[in-house]
Write a structure and sequence with these properties.
Blueprint lengths: L22 H10 L11 H13 L19 H18 L20 H10 L26 H15 L4 E5 L6 H12 L8 E4 L16 E4 L7 H12 L3 E5 L8 E5 L7 E7 L5 E7 L3 E5 L9 E6 L6 E8 L4 E6 L15 H9 L1 H14 L15 E5 L2 H14 L5 E2 L5 E5 L12 E5 L12 H7 L8 E8 L2 H4 L13 E8 L16 E11 L10 H15 L9 E4 L3 E4 L3 E13 L2 E11 L9 H12 L8 H22 L5 H7 L6 E4 L6 E7 L5 E5 L3 E5 L4 E4 L4 E4 L3
Parallel strand pairs: 1-2, 1-3, 3-4, 4-11, 12-15, 14-15, 16-17, 23-28
Antiparallel strand pairs: 5-8, 6-7, 6-9, 9-10, 10-11, 12-16, 13-14, 17-18, 18-22, 19-20, 20-21, 21-22, 23-24, 24-25, 25-26, 27-28
């Protein structure tokens, strides 16, 4: 109850049971309770006397369960009778305002008597779905002015709640004999679509359908089971609709009125293209897994109310998503026979083409699902930006860590600050309760002893980092603006042997190439690495090559692990990580600054490791490979792959410095997506050219007939993989 329920004698209430007291007992309580004029508060002793009188001096005349008014399964006639009896008792038996004046607490009775336990048992299921939104606010000084009698107030609040609209609860019904995993799958997809701060998601269990008072306490019911719906359950679901409820059906047998389900076995577990009509009357095409059923309209009077929302793009134009209104209270249902709710990893896919089609449509699947939820009255606004968290100073080497702390003592100002135009860092020894964290000023905790994170293991990072200097000093944060800014104030001052890296779980302002924003959900590997390159060196004379080396390092961090060599992870010119040549799952951003004869380079790289949605991640590819090859390769983690990427990169830089481009290009070509590809230059009607390779400076080489080979500069052009176009970038 969000700490809104308070007692002035320090007792903590655990259970609430409301009972009606006989007139004789009320008189006793009136005699025990002190006069308002004599005393404004009740002592603990007097409170105990009142409690004893309430427990032992009372016979329960009639039970009015609080939650009954939030949706009791009793009939409307019984409920009406109960309310009339309650009103009569309130008028004749309640303590008057003179006896309990404004500003007094109504002390709560935590009963354990036999009658109250019976009430509790009959009530506990009823309160299960009660929303905290319906609890009246208490004032900050805990002296609410109860200007009406308590029972009248509760009754008035109950009526207000039911008239104002349903509590923001979403219930998921997954049938009678299904595993919790199926509920969690549906819950997970809904949580990624709706505003998580606005709705609470529960499972509606089989035994609760007919008993629990969920009908008045839910905004949306999701039916996600293919098993038959019993007649009794169907009646309950229709009752929910008649009271203004909303139903979303995922491949279920539930239907009503002008629509019926027809089974088409040839469609079961097949992937088909469908066309969905959006709210703005536009259409969207995507590929989805079909349940094996379609909808058919039946000739009835209200057939005009049935609105097909999606049809298969086949000869029969089969209806697979439909909208059905019901009743006069705003009830409506959207029923689907395509699997909008299923993550691709949770279903058996027939072919590699099916996997590719579903993954390519994954973003559109979310778009369609959000459209449906919005049309049913839910908010799908983006969640609030998470709060920034402190930075932890970590190291894979204790000796280097101590050397860094010694360096810090000599380089911070009197306030412990290292200032920068992008973000200033304030170094503190331990976490402080009133620590200031803003986009321009962040605290860095230097003691490693108290560090722990659900998403990052320093031990795993240490085990996989095998470098001479890169990535030795870590600045780690759960949530930061962008890792690209964290090293700005340190990189020009720090000794070269102390290789800096910034790692985050989430970014609120992630940066991409050309000013693009990089989305950074949990599950991405997000980091910025600092390296120095001498101007007069092989790589110093070919700085554009760095982004290619980093992209290659990311791919090799996975494909160099024994058993993972055939995971379909590739590089795309100039700076992207791809699944095959189909979908992007990572990218690289390089910023370089030349000071005298040394390049200071910040390398930002991010790639999807364990976040399947909204597109694809490395662990999706591992799962797919395991299914196809019958292997049991383990899922990988961001901490492991960041460390392996830095390790591979250091070795690639060493090879390049020694041998130049020819030392690494054969490895780059092994994993790039462009071999033998023909493209058009500049526009869809532009001249045809063949991709040849990369020149000595890292620029893409193309061969246009009649013109020979020319180089394409990465900063002036982009590669449109979907159209096989090389397009000039315009500022």
């Amino acid at each position: 109850m969000e700490d809104r329920l308070q007692m002035d004698n320090g007792m903590v209430p655990h259970k609430i049971v409301s009972v009606h007291l006989q007139e004789s007992t009320l008189k006793e309580l009136g005699q025990v309770a002190p006069s308002v004029k004599e005393k404004r508060s009740v002592s603990s002793t007097q409170m105990n006397e009142i409690t004893r009188a309430a427990i032992f001096g009372t016979t329960v005349k009639s039970g009015l369960e609080i939650a009954a008014s939030l949706g009791d399964p009793e009939s409307e006639e019984e409920k009406s009778k109960l309310e009339k009896e309650s009103k009569h008792d309130n008028e004749s038996n309640s303590l008057s305002d003179k006896e309990i004046g404004p500003g007094e607490h109504h002390h709560l009775h935590l009963s354990s008597c036999h009658e109250c336990l019976q009430l509790e048992n009959s009530t506990i299921e009823s309160v299960r779905f009660a929303s905290a939104e319906n609890i009246p606010e208490l004032s900050d000084d805990c002296s609410s002015k109860l200007e009406e009698k308590n029972d009248d107030y509760i009754a008035r609040e109950i009526k207000r709640v039911n008239l104002a609209g349903k509590p923001p609860n979403v219930l998921i019904y997954v049938g009678s004999e299904t595993s919790k995993m199926e509920f969690e799958q549906v819950k997970s997809i809904l949580e990624e679509c709706v505003n998580g701060d606005s709705y609470t998601i529960y499972q509606l269990r089989e035994e609760q359908v007919l008993k629990a008072p969920w009908i008045d306490n839910a905004l949306l019911l999701v039916i996600a089971t293919e098993e038959p719906i019993s007649e009794e359950n169907h009646k309950q679901f229709m009752k929910f609709l008649s009271k203004g409820g909303k139903i979303l059906g995922f491949s279920s047998s539930f239907t009503f009125d002008g629509i019926q389900i027809k089974r088409k076995n040839k469609l079961k577990k097949t992937v088909h293209e469908l066309v969905v009509s959006k709210l703005d009357n536009t259409e969207i095409k995507l590929d989805l897994l079909i349940s094996g059923c379609i909808f058919e309209e039946v000739m009835k009077e209200n057939i005009g109310k049935v609105k097909p929302l999606s049809r298969l793009n086949n000869a029969d134009r089969d209806i697979v998503i439909v909208h059905l209104p019901y009743g006069d209270s705003g009830g409506e249902a959207i029923l689907s026979q395509v699997h909008l709710e299923l993550n691709i990893n949770s279903v058996d896919i027939q072919t590699k083409d099916d996997f590719n089609s579903l993954k390519m449509s994954n973003t559109k699947r979310y778009e369609v699902l959000r459209e449906i939820l919005i049309s049913l009255g839910l908010s799908c606004e983006l969640r609030e930006i998470p709060m920034l968290t402190p930075i932890y100073l970590l190291s894979s080497d204790e000796e280097i860590h101590l050397a860094f702390l010694k360096w810090l003592e000599q380089n911070v100002d009197a306030k412990g600050l290292i200032e920068s135009s992008k973000v200033s860092l304030k170094f503190v020894s331990s976490c402080e309760s009133k620590m200031e964290i803003t986009p321009s000023l962040m605290s860095v905790i230097t003691q490693m002893g108290n560090f722990s994170s659900e998403h990052f293991s320093l031990e795993t990072y240490q085990q996989n980092l095998q470098t001479k200097k890169l990535g030795k000093i870590l600045l780690f944060s759960e949530v930061t603006t962008t890792t690209m800014n964290l090293l700005d104030g340190l990189m020009f001052k720090l000794p070269e042997e102390m290789g800096l890296i910034a790692i985050a779980v989430r970014q609120t302002q992630g940066k991409g190439r050309g000013g693009n924003v990089w989305l950074s959900p949990v599950g991405c590997a997000l980091s910025t690495l600092h390296i120095t390159i001498p101007l007069y060196s092989n790589l110093g004379q070919r700085i554009p090559f760095i982004q290619h080396l980093v992209s290659l390092a990311v791919v090799e961090s996975v494909r160099s692990i024994p058993g993972y060599e055939d995971i379909e992870l590739r590089v795309k010119w100039p700076n992207d990580i791809y699944y095959s040549d189909l979908m992007k799952l990572g990218g690289v951003l390089v910023n370089s600054t030349l000071t005298e004869t040394t390049f200071h380079i910040l390398i930002g790289f991010g790639f999807n490791v364990n976040n399947s949605n909204p597109t694809i991640c490395i662990n999706d590819l591992i799962t797919k490979y395991n299914k196809e090859e019958g292997t049991q390769l383990k899922a990988l983690t961001a901490d492991c792959l960041i460390a392996r990427t830095v390790t591979v990169l250091e070795r690639l830089i060493d090879i390049f410095q020694e041998k130049g481009p020819n030392g690494v290009l054969h490895r780059y070509y092994k994993y790039w997506v462009h071999s033998g590809k023909q493209v058009r230059l500049h526009s869809e009607e532009g001249p045809l050219a063949w991709i040849v390779g990369i020149d000595d400076c890292g620029f893409l080489q193309v061969h246009e007939e009649g013109k020979g080979i020319e180089s394409v500069h990465p900063d002036g052009n982009s590669f449109d993989m979907l159209k096989n176009l090389i397009i000039p970038k315009h500022s």
